[in-house]
Amino acid sequence: MNFYIITLFPEMFDSYLGESILARAIKEKKIKVTFVNPRKFVSGKYKKVWPDGNISQQIDERPYGGGPGMVMMAEPVIKAVESVIKKVVSSKKKVVRKTKIINFSPSGKKFDTTYAKKLVRPGGYTDIILISGRYEGIDARVDKILKTEKISIGDYVLTGGELPAMIMIDCIARQVKGVLGNFDSREEERISSSETYTRPEIIEYKGKKYKVPKVLLSGNHKDIENWKQNKK
Predict the structure, then answer these.
(1) 95 and 138, same domain (yes or no)
(2) Among 7, 28, 146, 164, which has the minimal tally of Cβ within 10 Å of its Cβ?
(3) pLDDT tens digits, residue range 114-169?
């Protein structure tokens, strides 16, 4: 599975992708994460070269109709996505792989594990482009031109799309065979509950003892499974 992240702040992903299961998955080439900064595609009057040689690349503008904040311009984002699509197609020569383009929006379709599974099922997508917006959002023409799918990770507003992108990568990557040591260890594929316990059997805190439920110590698998079902 190949993930392409359109973001102004690729360094935000360093820590999360550099640790634990995802880091191993990347190292073992089970998944690949590539970053594309839309600032590189800023042109015209929005790209300025100063006398000292420094280059400024403005990617946001005031919204038409008024309103607070700034809006990311469509052209740099579109060009960034097009550069990815061109790379995806050329990498397989005449074989065009399925590519999903996702733009994060509070009004979008709710993301869940079922959606993640659909993306990686046989015959599904092998290349996913995640557009991480900033400021007050992205010019709506990006969705119309690129035919993106709007996705929401919850009923709240964040300062950018980087965290939603990390969440999606984490959840989707778990569905890719080989990413987890034991594919059946995915929580959604086994009977799990909101309550889990481990050693020691009894913990004493401020004079009170907290014990592991007896059913988990019984060895009766049927009773344990029923208990877990009731605790979901």
Answers:
(1) yes
(2) 28
(3) 999 999 988 889 999 999 999 889 999 999 999 999 999 999 889 999 999 999 99
Question: How close are the terminal C-alpha atoms of the chain, in Å?
Answer: 31
Q: Do 12 and 162 touch, CB atoms closer than 8 A?
A: yes
Strands 60-61, 71-72: parallel, antiparallel or unpaired by DSSP?
antiparallel
Please, which residues bridge with residue 202 across strands? Answer: 211
3-class secondary structure, 98: coil
The confidence band for 93, taking pLDDT boundaries of 50, 70 and 90, is low
CATH of the domain at 88: 3.40.1280.10
Tokens of 156: 């709240």
**Sole residue written with tokens 């503008």:** 61
Are 212 and 167 within one domain? Answer: no
How far lies 120's CA from each of 37, 116, 126, 172, 176, in Å? 26, 7, 7, 7, 7
Q: How far is CA 193 from the centre of its chain?
A: 25
**How far is residue 191's CA from residue 223's CA, in Å, rounded to a whole number?**
12
Counted domains in the chain = 2
Q: Is 108 exposed, middle or buried (0-12, 13-18, 19+ CB in 10 A)?
A: middle
Angle between helices 162-173 and 20-27 (to 10 degrees): 70
Residue type, 108: G
